[in-house]
Design brief:
Blueprint (H helix, E strand, L loop, with lengths): L27 H6 L5 H15 L11 H11 L2
Length: 77
């Protein structure tokens, strides 16, 4: 089975004003249906995420576990 790309950063909370997840920028429906979407559908959503994240009203205040692990790997720890 092929790995499925996911924008999830383990910060799962929905901005009530925009309807987008604070962490990844997807809607509830997109999150729920992610595994059943075609690769083309997922790529389309992924392309929209940076612009969506600009619209959420608040950002996570702490470093996520995934970001910390990525940073530590990059630093060679």
């Amino acid at each position: 089975m092929a790995d499925i790309k996911s924008p999830c950063i383990l910060v799962c909370a929905i901005d009530m004003k925009s309807g987008y997840c604070f962490g990844c920028g997807r809607t509830r429906d997109e999150i729920a249906g992610w595994l059943t979407m075609s690769p083309r559908e997922r790529d389309t959503v992924m392309a929209e995420l940076p612009a969506r994240l600009e619209t959420v009203e608040r950002r996570p205040r702490r470093e996520t576990r995934r970001a910390r692990l990525t940073r530590q790997r990059a630093e060679g720890q």
